[in-house]
Fold each of these.
Amino acid sequence: MAHTKTESPAKSDHRVSAQPLLGQRGRIVQEYGTVVDLPLAVDASKRLESTRVLNQVLADTIMLREVYKKAHWQVSGHTFYQLHLLLDKHYEEQDELVDLIAERIQALGGVAIATPHDVAEQTRIERPPIHRQEVPEQLSRILEAHELVLKEAHEFAKAAADAGDDGTNDLLVSDVIRTNERQVWFVAEHLVEMPVVHAK
Ligand SMILES: [Fe+2]
């Protein structure tokens, strides 16, 4: 048989394996709104309910995080600098909560909501205008968003404890509720009319 330099198809493929396989689409490996089986000693039905409510808190927390960034960019006036910094600090803290909540959902065997399209459809936070508002309105909207998250976090924390999902209860109480309560304090104090020089 004559010798040729032609290699087998397999070897030929191997030679170009540095080429990324682009434009791929595949099967869905887990549908949103389901949980996989995991040895967590919490019933699948309880974990499913926890992931459902955690996804609501997640959508609202992502939206609150973004409302903070909007205000961080768009505040103005003589407290601009301190508000600009404070609002970004709260944005970062909400961002940490987003990660904690999302990873809790995955740890429970669920699917965490993630992209803005889905968040916008699911959140209960009132949509702020695309325009720039006065600072008191920006802060009021932030406080209302906090209260919405706190209301659902209290309700869901109790339900999670009753269902035996202590980890979710702990996340909602120790992280979500405590962080949101502290941020409410820091923001609300900026809406108090207080004499700066002359006591009344
Ligand atoms: Fe910034």
Note: Residues 72, 88 surround fe (ii) ion (CB under 6 Å).
Amino acid sequence: MTRLHASAVLDYPFEAPATDGSVVEIAPGILWARMPMPMALDHINVYLLRGDAGWTLIDTGLNTDTARARWEHIAAKHLQGLPIVRLVCTHMHYDHAGLASWLCERFDIPLHMTHGEYFMMRALSEPIPDPLPPSQMLFYQRAGLPQERLDRMWNAMRQDPFRAPQPQSFTRLRGGDVIRLGTRDWRVVIGEGHSPEHACLYCEQERILIAGDQLLPRISSNVLVTSIEPEANPLQLWLDSLSRLEGLAPDTLVLPSHERVFRGLHARTQELREHHQRQFDMLREHLAEHQACTAFEAMLCLFPRLRGPVDDMLALGETIAHLSWLRYAGVLRRVLDEDGVYRFRLA
Ligand SMILES: [Zn+2]
């Protein structure tokens, strides 16, 4: 679940561009633009890197007519007579890659992505079966989710308005690769937990990090367990990824995918660690009081104010991610009760 934290310690050196196709230059040849999104989180940041041969685009915005119009505007007004030469998508989520197919065809450019992100995107492009396959149903039944909430959740997911055509090929990014984009060398730093193989890009020389969703200044990124990999421990992967980012220079300028460009990387990773620690503490306190709970009951404890079926899906996945972390750490145990539902207890 996205949660806002007020942070006094981060420094925001630039005013954000509007979502009307205007751009802000944050370093020589690095432009920041914003694509609008029709939801509570109302924008995604995209970046453009100028090189001698042309521009590299970082991320796309949602598959909407408005976002396409913004790209047309940017291409017409802000590219200083140079072509677009490639698209990099940090990860497969539809605000980051929803226009990948369109941009690649429109500007005749290659798509650069990690293997994990590209194939997860392709796999999830299939329509969701109705009814859900038994193995997926089982995941939610074991979580204790009431049937009507499960139906509501999947009906909402089936009506996803941003489903996008898929790019048919890609160029692979790998962790540790150093690639030339624009006039700078960027090292690919992989993050996990929010998505399978999320690419951040780090310019060592100038200490600039294109962070995607791995490091946002006020929102905590979704870290979910889903029915696809029910025994996963994504929160451990996420915390390990924060450790990798903590190896970068303290004065790094962070270019996140949402909200504003900032400095204060280490303060922010620390806040995120504290955020997850608070969730762990809440679950332990809840269990100390109630002896046992299902994942659904734990979700109502962590997220008492859910606003609809998509919230349910994110909150349940995030709750199970925290329960799984505590279970793998030996703090909780999980028992499959006779009614077919997992119950968690303090170990
Ligand atoms: Zn994302």
Note: The first helix runs from residue 65 to 77.
Amino acid sequence: MASLTHRALRELVMSFGGCDEYFTEMISAGALVAGGPLEKFYLDSQPKPELVVYQLVGDDTLTIVRAAEIMNRYPSRGIDINMGCSAPFIKKKGGGVAWMLKQDQAVGLIDILKRKSPTTRLSVKMRLGVQDDPEDLLQFCKRLKSAGLDRITLHPRTANQKFKRRARWGAVQELKESIELEVIGNGDIGTFIELKEKSQGPWDGVMVGRAAVQQPWIFLWAQNLAESRLSVDLEETDLKFLHLLEIHQPKEFFISRALLFFSYFAHNVIWHHNLYTQLQKCTTRKEIEYLWREYFVDNPEERIKLRPETSE
Ligand SMILES: Cc1cc2nc3c(=O)[nH]c(=O)nc-3n(C[C@H](O)[C@H](O)[C@H](O)COP(=O)(O)O)c2cc1C
């Protein structure tokens, strides 16, 4: 997720036991090929590169192929092409979900990428499409598979739905049952219970987005349902995140990325609205830390978050 799934968040999730694999934020193929000074931060796949999937976003075949060549010099679990982003500034230029409207070119792109680097695990993240047309989606996926695609992550909403309506997980099942290809489902997993339930579905895996930012411990809580009394120290966690962000991200990104993270994480506390309004005025790490410390001085009972009891 753009500006969110960088190394600092990854390490925070890992500090709670982690998950099976991590996607980078979408990396602009054009910027990577141009070789800007910040690209090294986007390409940082440490501390467990074998679990990190680089995601590329771009609108032009040649640029994406060149960017993938650069990525292939770094250790990773694979490369993912973003064919799902519906943000207007990406889609208008022909990137993200717009690839689903130029299927011949999309298939050609996968074909070239696979031929150039047959051992790279190649995946695509997509939405249902611009329209909800299951047959069109299936034929597109079949063609991508024939071109060499190894897996698909499906966020089952149309481009225009953005985050409206519930993700239609039935579409993930339909796709999985219609194609011999790894299919990962994504969308609206909000709690550790939902993660556990969805993990048992007929697909090959699930991807968690926003909930992993709000609850970096979600994987731990979902995996250990039998264990009682799991808890997390929220104050320790927000301080840890700030520390990781400072050491792993460029200075100029610090405040904007901290605030984006806290726009999700702050939902762990009752007075998040007030707190986040204050946080938005911060311009330094010290000010952010101060607000969090003050919050728990005023609301000490909220500092430790207990996992709700489950029936297992
Ligand atoms: C702030 C934000 C940034 C995102 N950036 C990306 C991105 O860079 N690449 C991508 O494939 N999806 C991106 N997404 C979409 C998510 O990966 C995911 O498909 C969507 O949020 C639904 O999953 P969730 O309900 O688990 O969050 C982003 C979503 C959000 C909210």
Note: The chain has two domains: 20-207, 231-306.
